[in-house]
Amino acid sequence: MESQKKLIERLERSEHDLKERVKELNCLYGISRIADDAESVEQLLEEVVSLIPPAMQFPELTTSQIAYGGKAYRTAIFKETPYKLSTSIDIAGKRLDLDIFYLQDLPFLEFETFLARDIGTRLKVSIETKEEMKKQVLDARVRAIMENYEQLEKKVKERGTLSDIDAVDKQIISLLSQDGRMKLVDIGERLSVEDKQGYSHVGVKNRITKLLEADAIRIQATMNLQKYKVVVGILLLETGSAVDARRVVELYKNCPRVLFCFESLGKYNLIYGIVAEGIDELQSFINTCSPKTEPGVKDSMILTSTHIVEPSFFPTRYFQPGDPACEKHEDGSCRFCPGGGVAFKPPERAGKASSVDDD
Questions:
Q1: Furthest-apart CA pair in the chain: how many Å?
Q2: Whole-model pTM?
Q3: All domains of the chain in start order, with CATH
Q4: Which end of the chain is more exposed for a tag (fewer CB within 10 A), N or C?
Q5: pLDDT at 11 over 60
Q6: Which tens digits make up the pLDDT trace of 199-245?
Q7: Beta strand residue intervals within the chain, DSSP E
Q8: Cβ(182)–Cβ(176) under 8 Å?
């Protein structure tokens, strides 16, 4: 009977130890899972600290905290007591402290000491991995920003400056921007050249022709978007590299919905103006077949305006047929191309038509 009793006790002890090992393994497995899913070190530590009490011998009497980087991450119910199990580990010059408290005077088992050390070691590996990934992401962003800056700087150096435009051409551009249909004679009469007032219509025509041939100006219809129920979305994009940015720009250079596209410095290196007839239509386009959806776009932000203040007139390709080179238009995956069917009709004079007249 005595030997049978000892056998039962040994089995019960083995069963107890096995259950404790299972709890330990669940904790370590949970840490690995969280380490894979957590987007930041903060999220990692916030979630891991709650896994510790269930792995201890007395979960209902256990609280814990992890201190790292000047912050403390604690269980929902937390209390410091003299009955403490602690471990510390150095992570890239920062100290991580793990403290486990029993609310009563209870002994910590040897396996619990090993578990605390193992948790610290696993956190060290996970944090070092995430910090390295974070550094790589930051380095990649810095490289992309520098690459974009160098590209923009090169483009700026290749261009002339506004001050290079002579006084007469500046006056002509100013007059045409107010009324693109202004007659050459009227333009000439309003020009002030040095001490002389007026300019021949032939001279005006020659200057306008040179400006057009140099691609310095374009005379075109502009549309008063204030007159219509138009929504404009400002789409800010961060691309992984300048190559990605150039590819996106090339793909959407003829998109009828694009009002403008700017390259910029900083986090977001492309700025798009998108036009639509309503917020739902704008959101659907942006989320399904806009530049935001292209490979190489890492992050984006959208600003929406339903009221255009200034300027009221915009050059727009809204009524042009869909770009035949656009794969999304051709295969029908973009259902929001106005070129596939004009969404709204302008009145007889929807904008300021512009032309060069010999009169």
A1: 128
A2: 0.51
A3: 2-134 (3.30.450.40), 162-213 (1.10.10), 222-339 (3.30.70.920)
A4: N
A5: yes
A6: 888 889 999 999 999 888 888 888 888 888 889 999 999 998 888 99
A7: 62-68, 71-74, 84-91, 94-102, 192-193, 196-197, 222-224, 231-239, 258-263, 270-276, 297-305, 313-314, 351-352
A8: yes
